[in-house]
Every structure is written in structure tokens, then in C-alpha cells.
């Protein structure tokens, strides 16, 4: 049952649960941002559902990372980061990349991109990027990155995030 419009509270802020509930009606794709940690040459990464193309000329993309991320500093330390566009069968990969701590690559197969970073087996596409700018934005940081190289990788449908859950994309008949 729909509820009425959310009104700012006495302090001028919207209820964060309501904000998340309403924005959850916007479906997004899911990506894994990967790199080799320059401190130990081990693969590192994180999941993001806030990824978008920004510009064709120059080729720019953007994604958002929480200020509290312990993975982003490791990924950010690399000269090049790789965006992996996850496929609908990669929910468990997304969960691993989104987990806090631990070996996020345990049991995952990957090959190296031209930039040397992990391209996850089964990902639909990859983009090697260099970070151009980081913009603080509330409890996140907006990362703008220049695409250096990119390619398609595997066939299939995208992993889609909608109303707090994951699914696939069904093409109309």
C-alpha cells in the first residue's frame, strides 16, 4: 500500500529509510571495481551499484563508494582500476565483493586486463580506468574515472539491483 509523500523532519532531513525505499524503485546494474593492491600485488575489489557513463569525449565513467569502505583505499592505491560489469548469474560474486574484510577473491576465477587488473570470469564487460577526480558527497565519494581500454567479455544478461534485491533482465517477447 503506497504511503504519502515523505516530508522533511523538524531538522530539515528526510527519513533515510523512506529515502532508500523510494530510490530503490530505480533499477541499477551492478559492477565490481577491481585492482591489484600495490602493497602486496594481491587482487582487491568492491561492489558498486552506482555506476554510470559520464562523457564520451573524453571517455569518463563515475561510481560512488562509501566513506567507510575499507576496500576502496586498497583499490585506489593502484594506478589503474578495472570496472567489471556483472552478469545476472554473478550474485554470489557481488556478495563476495560487497563483504567487509576477508579474501574477496577466494574461489573466483579471473584473468588480467591489459592494465593488469582482475577481469572476473563471467563478467559481461570490463573497463580499465584511471581515477581523475574524487568528490565528497554526503556519506559517499563520487569517483570520476577516465576509460583507457574496454571490451566485452562474456555473453548473458546483466545483474540488476532493484528494491533491495538482485535479479536479471527479461527481454520483452
Q: Any chance you could write out the topology, listing elements then pairs?
A:
Blueprint: H1 16-23, E1 28-29, E2 31-36, E3 43-48, E4 51-55, E5 60-66, H2 72-76, E6 81-85, H3 91-98, E7 110-112, E8 118-120, E9 125-137, E10 140-152, E11 160-162, E12 165-167
Antiparallel strand pairs: 1-11, 2-3, 2-6, 4-5, 5-10, 6-9, 7-8, 9-10, 11-12
Q: Report the top-level CATH class.
A: Mainly Beta
Biggest sheet strand order reads 3-2-6-9-10-5-4
Shape: globular
Q: Given the structure, what is the number of helices?
A: 3
Radius of gyration, taken over Cα atoms and rounded to an integer in Å: 17 Å
Alpha-carbon distance between the two ends: 30 Å
How much of the sequence lies in strands comes to: 35-45%
Indicate the structural class: mainly beta
Architecture per CATH nomenclature, i.e. the level-2 architecture? Roll
Number of strands: 12
Question: Element order, helices and strands?
Answer: HEEEEEHEHEEEEEE
User: What level of helicity do the residues show?
Assistant: 10-25%
**Oligomer status:** single chain
- Mean pLDDT across residues: 88
Can you tell me the CATH superfamily? Answer: Electron Transport, Fmn-binding Protein, Chain A
Do you know the CATH topology?
Pnp Oxidase, Chain A
Q: In total, how many domains does the architecture comprise?
A: 1
Indicate the low-confidence ranges by residue numbers.
none
Largest sheet: 7 strands, antiparallel
InterPro entries: Flavin_Rdtase-like_dom (IPR002563), NADH-dep_flavin_reductase (IPR050268), Split_barrel_FMN-bd (IPR012349)
GO molecular function: oxidoreductase activity
Organism: Nonomuraea spiralis
Domain Flavin reductase like: 23-168
